[in-house]
């Protein structure tokens, strides 16, 4: 691991960001900081704007107004590949693996992209791939094609790719959806371990069990607005937010 960050440094600052799609305000005046080493969970009902917020950070979408700063510098005008190169990596709801490539090749395409990081050269990068495949329990599947993996294994491969990116900030879009309980526990342990090593994680998650086990902090979005942020206990016990989340709004 090459990443090290001092605790509580603000990595990403989202200030008064808005995003309109025609008449729809998908993000409505959102202000949110992501401090280093903290696991923030974004929760909210379907269509709340969670993925849109990720897309705005990563340059897949451009804010209608407002600013996003990375380590104090504006991200305005950056293409997704430039944002990735700054140290912000993401996964997608639909995974976007290279389905015909092997497990190992899927991870190596990421280490090759960040080869400028590998002072130890190709050998160091290969060692890192082996380490990552061991951590994600995919080592014995390294020569299988991604398309032939079981669902949970594909989710872990998506995580393996982000581990290989050496990014400081991981944006994970529903990475645990559909995992069985045993995979859940492995997944939570792995993310907690990386957070301890200094990785900052922002995760979109619908599974409240994972939200409770994983989050240092929860941010609740609804209809594009950041309605609340706080500990998982505070947010999940709030009857007003629960009513919104479970679709029982007045
Ligand atoms: N490119 C786009 N063009 C038009 N509307 C969009 C676009 N992307 C998202 N939207 C709309 O913006 C709103 C927020 O969508 P978004 O995908 O961010 O929600 P979400 O919180 O990630 O939901 P889910 O939990 O279902 O993934 C939705 O109404 C969606 O239909
Ligand atoms: Mg989404």
Task: Describe the fold and architecture.
Helix 3 (about 105-115) crosses helix 4. The chain is α/β, with parallel strands linked by helices and about 250 residues long. It is globular. The chain has two domains: about 1-85 and about 170-250, Rossmann fold (3-Layer(aba) Sandwich); about 95-165, no CATH class. A six-stranded mixed beta sheet has the order 6-7-8-3-9-10, sandwiched between helices. A four-stranded antiparallel beta sheet has the order 2-1-4-5, with helices on one face. It has helices at about 50-60, 80-85, 105-115, 120-135, 150-165, 180-195, 210-215, 230-235, 240-245; strands spanning about 10-20, 25-35, 40-45, 65-70, 75, 90, 170-175, 200-205, 215-220, 225-230. A hairpin with a 2-residue loop joins strand 9 (about 215-220) and strand 10 (about 225-230).
Summarize the structure.
This protein has helices spanning 50-58, 80-86, 103-113, 121-135, 151-164, 181-196, 208-214, 232-236, 239-245; strands at 10-21, 24-35, 39-43, 65-70, 73-74, 88-90, 169-173, 200-204, 217-222, 225-230. It has 250 residues and is α/β, with parallel strands linked by helices.
